[in-house]
């Protein structure tokens, strides 16, 4: 489809916000690279072209008018490593969309999964780095449901190119935390299957053997669920292993993000080919027992998800029940390094002004580097659209030397309403911001990071908009293998409230 441009009479220079060596560039800018005054953008998901890391795309929820709860599927792309972004418009004009999730395959083809108001979905594909998108099926025919997430099998096995998604208990086809599979590159989706123990508000990934793992919070506690036969297209996927996982607390909502989650559960697998290959990692911002605020907690499995380690706290400030460490997310680099980012209020006298923080691990999450702030402080309560939250998640994609982060913040001031606005930003994080030679430590530091002194400096940089249109591709059909045997009976879970 041709790009749909958003035009506004009122614009201001795009925001470039620097904090130490870390520079955040605004992504939700108009066709001339200007900030759009009066809109809101949040809940951002980033994809990177592995064949050309300078090409990236971010999907987000686009509110053209903050007085309305109506939002659309926004996106932006960059061809210069995140310094300049172009926002061509929305996926489909005047169509309600939410919960954007993007991903890329090993060839650099991007995919964008978008939730409709009906709790059904659509998958879009881009073969030009997110510059334009092709809708792979008519509206709603990707099935799915609320808080959906998807992953792509990038192995060389029989499931190569398969796409897998899970969603929570509010679904297009009925209740129950559901799983779906596409064997043709996201064009058609097979009938949904209820996932045992119903892990929700989480993500999924594939190991080097083609085994699928889904993480999330069940009725109680968290679970890691495995399917070894989802990679065989002529078999109905079953879940042969369901492992309870102690994350050191529970997912929460409200509080610092009144109408949303305070964090999701992120699951990712090491495919480095080294000694940590196929380790399964889970990270989440959780509320520890007796607390209403959250810490970023991490666990790992070294035995194919059969057991998990005790939870490790990633944020290294002293335990303080007034401080929030929220929207925690992470990714695994091709060399096995772990990169984690989250919002953090440790430096805020009011315990709510937040900064994006970063930490990394080079020993499979056993220890984490001293935490470092990578953004200036912002007020997460300002700039709300007609929905009091800044989304439900942020995302990161790592490479050999660092991580590419998409997050929302309120750096831009809107003089029309006397508040700052929710906008989407890109920042590159990397080891080296902590000290000349950061050294991971097993013991949390008792010294908070100093309060930032730098202030954002806006600049304007126009960016041209290409008009190439991609063509959907179809993945090969796999061969079959013996069927696995399920062994755990699911427990009932209360139906969650809808919160697209």
N- and C-termini, Cα separation: 25 Å
Helical/strand content category: mainly beta
Mean pLDDT, to the nearest integer, reads: 87
Sheet of most strands = 7 strands, antiparallel
Q: DSSP helix count? A: 0
What would the keywords be for this entry?
7-stranded antiparallel sheet; 4-stranded antiparallel sheet; disordered N terminus; single chain; disordered C terminus; 35 strands
Describe the structure.
It is globular and about 60 Å long. The two termini are 25 Å apart. By secondary structure, the protein is an all-beta fold. The protein has strands spanning 11-19, 22-26, 34-36, 40-48, 56-63, 72-78, 86-90, 97-104, 110-116, 121-126, 134-135, 149-152, 163-167, 178-182, 193-194, 204-206, 212-217, 222-227, 241-245, 253-254, 257-261, 265-269, 280-286, 295-301, 312-313, 325-332, 338-344, 355-361, 372-373, 395-398, 403-409, 413-414, 419-420, 423-429, 457-459. Mean pLDDT is 87; it is low at 2-8 and 436-498. The strands form nine sheets. Strands 1, 2, 3, 30, 31, 34 and 35 form a seven-stranded antiparallel β-sheet that branches. The chain contains no helices and 35 strands.
Note the topology.
Blueprint: E1 11-19, E2 22-26, E3 34-36, E4 40-48, E5 56-63, E6 72-78, E7 86-90, E8 97-104, E9 110-116, E10 121-126, E11 134-135, E12 149-152, E13 163-167, E14 178-182, E15 193-194, E16 204-206, E17 212-217, E18 222-227, E19 241-245, E20 253-254, E21 257-261, E22 265-269, E23 280-286, E24 295-301, E25 312-313, E26 325-332, E27 338-344, E28 355-361, E29 372-373, E30 395-398, E31 403-409, E32 413-414, E33 419-420, E34 423-429, E35 457-459
Antiparallel strand pairs: 1-2, 1-3, 1-35, 2-34, 4-5, 5-6, 6-7, 8-9, 9-10, 10-11, 12-13, 13-14, 14-15, 16-17, 17-18, 18-19, 20-21, 22-23, 23-24, 24-25, 26-27, 27-28, 28-29, 30-31, 31-34, 32-33
């Amino acid at each position: 489809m041709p790009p749909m441009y958003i035009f506004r009479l009122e614009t201001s220079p795009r925001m470039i916000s620097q904090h130490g060596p870390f520079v955040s560039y605004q992504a939700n800018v108009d066709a001339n690279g200007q900030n759009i005054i009066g809109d809101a953008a949040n809940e951002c998901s980033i994809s990177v072209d592995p064949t050309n890391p300078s090409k990236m795309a971010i999907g987000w929820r686009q509110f053209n008018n903050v007085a309305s709860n109506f939002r659309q599927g926004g996106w932006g792309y960059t061809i210069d490593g995140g310094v300049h972004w172009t926002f061509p418009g929305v996926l489909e004009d005047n169509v309600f969309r939410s919960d954007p999730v993007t991903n890329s395959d090993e060839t650099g083809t991007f995919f964008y999964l978008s939730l409709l108001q009906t709790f059904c979905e659509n998958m879009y594909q881009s073969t030009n780095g997110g510059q334009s998108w092709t809708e792979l099926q008519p509206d709603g025919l990707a099935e799915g449901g609320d808080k959906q997430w998807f992953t792509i099998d990038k192995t060389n096995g029989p499931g190569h190119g398969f796409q897998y998604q899970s969603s929570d208990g509010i679904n297009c086809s009925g209740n129950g935390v559901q799983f779906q599979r596409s064997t043709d590159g996201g064009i058609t989706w097979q009938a949904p299957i209820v996932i045992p123990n119903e892990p929700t508000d989480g993500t999924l990934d594939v190991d080097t053997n083609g085994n699928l793992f889904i993480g999330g919070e069940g009725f109680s506690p968290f679970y890691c669920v495995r399917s070894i036969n989802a990679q065989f297209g002529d078999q109905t996927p079953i879940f042969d292993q369901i492992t309870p996982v102690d994350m050191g607390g529970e997912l929460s909502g409200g509080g610092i993000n009144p109408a949303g989650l305070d964090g999701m559960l992120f699951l990712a697998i090491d495919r480095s080919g080294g000694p940590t290959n196929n380790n399964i990692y889970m990270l989440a911002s959780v509320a520890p027992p007796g607390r209403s605020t959250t810490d970023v907690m991490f666990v790992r499995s070294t035995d194919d998800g059969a057991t998990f380690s005790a939870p490790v706290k990633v944020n290294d400030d002293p335990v303080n029940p007034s401080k929030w460490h929220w929207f925690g997310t992470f990714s695994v680099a091709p060399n096995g390094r772990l990169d984690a980012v989250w919002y953090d209020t440790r430096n805020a006298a009011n315990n709510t002004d937040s900064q994006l923080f970063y930490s990394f691990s080079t020993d499979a999450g056993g220890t984490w580097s001293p935490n470092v702030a990578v953004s200036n402080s912002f007020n997460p309560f300002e700039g709300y659209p007609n929905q009091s939250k800044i989304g439900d998640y942020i995302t990161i994609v790592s490479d050999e030397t660092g991580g590419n982060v998409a997050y929302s913040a309120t750096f831009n001031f809107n003089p029309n309403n006397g508040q700052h606005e929710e906008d989407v930003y890109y920042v590159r994080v990397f080891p080296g911001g902590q000290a000349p030679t950061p050294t991971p430590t097993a013991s949390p530091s008792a010294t908070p990071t100093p309060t930032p002194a730098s202030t954002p400096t806006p600049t304007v940089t126009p960016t041209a908009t290409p008009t190439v249109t991609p063509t959907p591709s179809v993945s090969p059909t796999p061969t079959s293998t013996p069927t696995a045997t399920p062994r755990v009976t699911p427990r009932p879970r209360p139906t969650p409230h809808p919160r697209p």
